[in-house]
Amino acid sequence: MTTTSTAPRQTVKPPAARRSFVERWLAIIFLAPTLLGMALFTFLPIIGSLVLAFFRWDIISAPQFVGLDNFASLAQDPTVRVSFLNTIVFVAVAVILQLGIALSLASMLQARMPSWLRVFLRSTFFFPLVLSAASVSIFMRYMFNEQFGVVNWLLSLIGIPAVPWLTSPVASAAVVVLVYVWQNFGFSFLLFLGALSNIPKELHEAANLDGATGWKQFSYVTLPLISPTVLVASVMAIISALQVFDQPYVLTNGGPGDSTRTAVMVIFESAFQQLEFGEASAIGLVLTVLILAVTALQFRLSRRFVFYQ
Amino acid sequence: MSSQTLQTRTSEHTVSTTGTPATRKPHRNSRLPAAGTIGRYAALAVAAALTLGPVLWTLSTSLRTPSESFNLPPSFLPLNPDFTAYQEVFRQINVGLLVLNSALVTGLIALGQMASATLAGYAFARLDFRGKKAIFSLVLATMMVPVQVTIVPVFMLIRGMGLSDTLLALILPAIPTAFGTFLMRQYFLGLPNDFAEAAALDGAGPWRIFRSVYVPLAVPGMAIVGILAFNFHWNEFFRPLILTISEQNFTLPLGLVTLQGNLGTGSISVVLAGVILSMLPALVVFIFGQRTLREGLTAGASK
Fold it and tell me: Which of A120, A148, A243 has its CB closest to that of B148?
């Protein structure tokens, strides 16, 4: 932009123009690794997925154009339907639990307490986040074992008979939710903690003086002030819950029956176990559309319910 | 859970405001803890126990002998530790190779992300070029695409490149990072412009300004990108499950899940010893880089 205004003035390139020339080349070189990498490993695969969804391909024989057959067959496939239903129920339950627990704990931590205790609790609730979901599922699978698991042992202490955690449809779905929430509530907790500590103290004091305490203060003062964070936290929680894979894969491998099979597990199985790469791509596209739709819906809702300062 | 919080809040505030109606500020330092305070501490204690309990159980069970590791009652504190399980896990699987693979993959991804994100972030923050906004939006848009959707074509691409069943198959696709680029752009935008002007007056060109002025200042930002990459890829399970085939290329989480599959419920403590070993690097990051990790994790939300 500066080049055009200064160029006609003299034949020798002024330093500013030379600098912007160098800068442009530098920008190209600096962006090259990221942009080339993304072109190769993100954009090309997205196009590949879109194209592949209309083909039948097992890698071995030549791909065969089948139109919308993949989408038609996944709509009829009971396993795919159950898996999407499972995923949606899982997202609803897990996200509500995750956000509820995170918000309760974050607001409890706002009260007066020794600072070492606050640091300790913050670290504790955040700790599961640094573990691998696969490792967590490994030890949780032992803990929820029906015969020798520590969970049933604890329940037996208060007289509850052994629950078949990993072998009954409802209980195994509950275990997947619990293990997922155990590991992930810390992320929402951190977001809420940041938002709550940004609320000026005077606002709570003013609300106290006006007689707005407890639930009233929470719903009329605190919640509106942190509503942008609630929105962001729920979008992030929903998007990551829609992609759940590690926990059900390790804990139950989708069973018993299809009761804990999720959308991503079906992508994995149809591609890498049944070699139905076209159908796997079609399922992937449906999942992406679902993710985009949820995000769009939440931002639409946010215009009505979120209060930006 | 949430109704309990609200109850505790209610009682605390009613006690403190009605107790001292005359003073302007309700003083909360009364000697007797209110019922609400006790309830709140009880709830926090239960939450902390439920969070730490499983980890403590894992640690202390890994320190029981393999034969008694599934005996009840369970142990939560390793009172007389036994290290047989740790010797046994090294015999069952090639722990050294798993650790080496995980360290190579994670380390190279972290370095690659730090370098590429620093370069790209700097270009977006401080260099002038046409189409900057559009390209940046395109980069951000890739964050919306889940890895599960691109994995099938990536798998084929890797095959086509002749990289299937190599560690490079895990490393290369993970290096371009939209989130890291976003973080580094934010970081460079937060640094003052004066340094660049002063350096330019001294005759430094755009490269010198980047290399000698801004890169040293951006080290904390690069640390955030590196730690996030480390935490994510050390624990990654989905991509290694698909992109590696032979056991010599397995990373730790994959090796441990395979070990659990092989051993079943035979000797829990052996598998758990492996789990504890795999947690150690994460624990180091947690102890020394917790603040950086927290900043990085919440950076995406506070935009």
Answer: A243
Check pLDDT > 90 for residue A82.
Answer: yes
Mean pLDDT (chain A) is: 86
Q: Which residue of B has its CA nearest to A234?
A: B301
Alpha helices in chain A (DSSP H): 2-6, 15-38, 44-52, 69-76, 78-108, 115-126, 133-143, 150-157, 169-197, 201-209, 214-217, 223-242, 246-251, 263-272, 277-305
What is the per-residue pLDDT across A8-28, written as a single tens digit (0 to 9) for each? 444 555 566 666 788 888 999
**Rounded mean pLDDT, B51-66:** 88
- Which chain B residues touch A31 with a CB distance below 8 Å? 119-120, 123, 135
CA distance A240 to A238: 6
Q: If you compute the radius of gyration of chain B from its CA atoms, what whole number of angstroms results?
A: 26
Torsion, Cα A184 A186 A192 A194, to 10 degrees, reads -130
Give the pLDDT of residue B87. Answer: 85
Cβ-defined contact of A41 to B173 (cutoff 8 Å): yes
pLDDT score for A261: 94
Q: Which residues of B17-42 are buried (b: 16+ CB within 10 A; e: fewer)?
A: eeeeeeeeebebeeeeebebbebbbe
Tell me the chain B residues in contact with residue A23 when contact means C-beta distances shorter than 8 Å.
Answer: 127-129, 206
DSSP state of B202: T
């990459």: which residue's tokens?
B229
Structure tokens belonging to residue B139: 């980069």
Query: Given phi > 0 = left and psi -120 to 50 = alpha, else beta, which region is A101?
Result: alpha
Q: What is the CA radius of gyration of chain A?
A: 26
As for the ipTM of the complex, it is 0.84
A176 Cβ under 8 Å from any chain B Cβ: no
Q: What are phi and psi of A55, to 5 degrees?
A: -125, 160
Helices (H), B127-211: 132-141, 147-160, 168-171, 178-189, 194-201, 206-208
For residue A153, give every residue at least 6 positions away whose Cβ sits within 8 Å of its Cβ, in sequence order, or none: B72, B73, B74
For the full predicted model, state whether its pTM sits above 0.95. Answer: no
Q: Which pLDDT score, from 0 to 100, does residue A12 have?
A: 52
Q: What pLDDT sits at residue B73?
A: 77
Retrieve residue B190's tokens: 């937060």
pLDDT reading at A208 higher than 90: no
Q: Would the CB atoms of A26 and B153 count as touching at under 8 Å?
A: no
The CA-atom distances, in angstroms, between B144 and each of A225, A231, A277, B71, B172 are 27, 16, 22, 47, 20
Q: What percent of chain B shows pLDDT beyond 70? A: 87
Least confident of A3-12, A89-98, A110-119: A3-12
For residues B170-198, give the mean pLDDT. Answer: 91
